[in-house]
Specification:
By secondary structure, the protein is α/β, with parallel strands linked by helices. About 50% of the residues lie in helices and about 5% in strands.
Length: about 400
Amino acid sequence: MLGFESAVGWRAVRRGPFRLGPSVCVLCGRTDDCPEKYGEKRTYVEYNLTVHYYCLLMSSGIWQRGGEDEGVDGFLITDIKKEVNRAAKLVRMMHLVLTRGKGMHLGNLKKMHIKTYCIVINTVMLEDVSARKEETIMNLIAVKENLYFEAGKMIAVSLVHGGPPPGFFSKTLFNCLVYGPENVKPTLEDVADVDVAQTIKTIKHANNLSSLQSTLQDCCEFLAAAGCLRPVTALCDKNVLVNDILISHVIKRITLPLESFRQGLNTLGVLEKMQMHPDVFSSILCHKPERLSAENVCDLFTIHSSSDVSKDEGADFWMGYLQDVESGESVVTFEDILLFATGSCYVPSIGFDPEPTIKFLHIRYPIGNRLLNCLELPITKTYQQFKNIMELTIRNTIRIERE
């Protein structure tokens, strides 16, 4: 495992000339030259390559395979270029999905959250793509390039490191992952394709043998493709047939990508934990997180007293401000407050570490100590002063960071 070295201590690469400059890092796409944040940035003329050291460390598909005198401090140039190509394929796939009729362009992808990417992958896995040629091609590319594995791995790493609760898995997908697809019975709600769903409904609601046989005759090509074409001699046969169609369409059709997705989720032992604690993970993966409110934000932060300020001093203003935010009487949102104090606009699945705290101090402006998840708030004479200072500081801080 590669050790984490300081930017100053990064050993010089002895192979070929290099220069520091404003070129774009091939991994993160940034021109920033900030060693404290990105590590040392170097441009290698002979390889036509610019890279940040920390970007190399954080890339999931590359590791040091060479000696310290080879490539970039042990990272081989061929490996770096392969990683760049792999990342480009992920971006192209997201571009294919996001641009289908939605007017988005590739520049928007830079601002995409990992959650959005995973939603895209999940949608591709569960939707019926037979009706759209571009989606069929994209699905085949995803399988060929092993992108379902990448999606599962991204979700696993995100969860372990305090990322957002995905909240978009269907119950059927979750059960396939945890209990195995052979033990799952899909329902009509799992069928995204309108035509397929209507066909299944017609078969299910046939009220006599003649109408059932007529329906089956009309959709015999679909049934043959699904491996469900068979003689029907009694009306009750429709129940078994509907179940077989659902299993074929919802589960068997995605066997390869589903298995690849499962393997990706097994990164860092996440899938194993899902199987050990299905109820806990179901709430994280299948249900959207609870909307932030004045009550749960208040409960999230523990108020600590200081040597010269009592615990209750300022607490009333804080509670009043949360009520204003909840009622829409503030330009700041609960997500803004959370981002200002912790650096995250959501509550991580594994909770905050350390737990968020509040201190009321004799200071002019609020301070968000994100390293400690501590919100330091000023003591003011009136509530309006408190509110004005909070709005000004939090809003401007968030705006500057977003710019």
